[in-house]
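During the second half of the funding period, the structural biology subgroup turned its attention to how the target accommodates small molecules. The most pressing case was D-gluconic acid, which had performed well in the primary screen but for which no bound structure existed. We therefore specified the complex as follows and requested a full 3D prediction, including the ligand pose.
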Amino acid sequence: MTSFPKTFLWGTATAAHQVEGNNFNADFWVMETTPGTIFAEPSGDACDHYHRYAEDIRLLSELGFNAYRFSIEWARVEPEDGLFSAATIAHYRRMLACCHEHGITPMVTLHHFTSPRWTMRLGGWESAEIVARFARYAERIARDLGDLIPYYCTINEANLPSLLAVMLSAPQRKRDDAPVGADMSAMRNPRETPWWQECARRMGIAPERLNPFLFSNTPSARAIVCRAHEAAREVIKRVRPEARVGITLALVDVQSRGGDQVAQRIWHDILYSFAPHLKGDDFLGVQNYSRMLVGPDGPLPPELELTQMGYEFYPEALAGVLRETSKLGLPLIVTENGVATDDDARRIEFIDRALAGVQACLRDGIDVRGYTYWSAFDNFEWMLGYKMHFGLIAVDRATQQRTVKPSARHLGEIARRARGLALHL
Ligand code: GCO
């Protein structure tokens, strides 16, 4: 059995809007709380991680992890165009310092789906103006906090709008016992709903200006996202030459069943078309949850057991995606991988099978530097609300009490063993 390198990053991942709570200056907050919303429920207090980060980070460190991927919330740091909050930046400084105190390497995402409301006045992710605004925010973070940030993920799942378009075209099979809303039908035509008009009205803008990241899938939006990544990378490197900067991409393992051309087109859309913009990056953040079968006419229906998300339970997808992405020649970090299930024994199996794939890749010389499980906590799964349970740690949202699941101990022990630490067992 290949042992993991001693320097391997063993972590968990979260995103500010999904765990912090009360992120009311973000575009998503308006979308969640406007009548007719396609969101199952509002994010509300989330896991109150904004106030509880210290105990949460301590817990993650005690479990055996040495890395934590989280996002800094732009909507909090820059609540109005050009108005930066020193108090919020000080908050994130305390959070970063807390990671270091507990032997945890922080990996900071600068944009994880949510944007400040005011960016919608510019036209959101369809406006070229957002590029310079995003770079200015990245520069501020690098200057004020960069001494504590070794890794930056500029934009989370820069390709997600493209992937969603592919996934929405796929025939779906709904689990009989799937929790409510575990399909993506609400995502199909959101712009045509009265809800969309009302969201724009509440933000004081025309509906066509409302271009939140997740809902912007035009060629121009895609180009703007890529430019925003490049501009942020440049500015971070200028301010902090030692920083390691990358992007993260959402990737399904596209498997051809007689549909090679379709598979190639999808790989192009979700991966290779981004490659020219990643030159100069220090790593690629790989995010994977499942596979997609494709035939000559397009995506095929799932065949295996489904997770709460309606994805096939297929942890081997991670190795497939690592092999494909390794062709880009960048070091790889698994910045997200996980499963939504209430059966924690299945989560343990998922992790073991996914990690066996990572080991096989390492054996074959693929440069994988870390594995961060999505997610540390059961949290706000965007349109699907709180019913998807990805977490290693359960959260009682009435009391905010954390309960460590066996899978957390399991992955923590794997990390401890790989790091040469004493086991808790
Ligand atoms: C994404 C995001 C996360 C999700 C996770 C589970 O992939 O959509 O990065 O915010 O919560 O992937 O679906």
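Two results from this model are relevant to the next phase. The first strand starts at residue 9 and ends at 13. The chain has one domain: 9-418.
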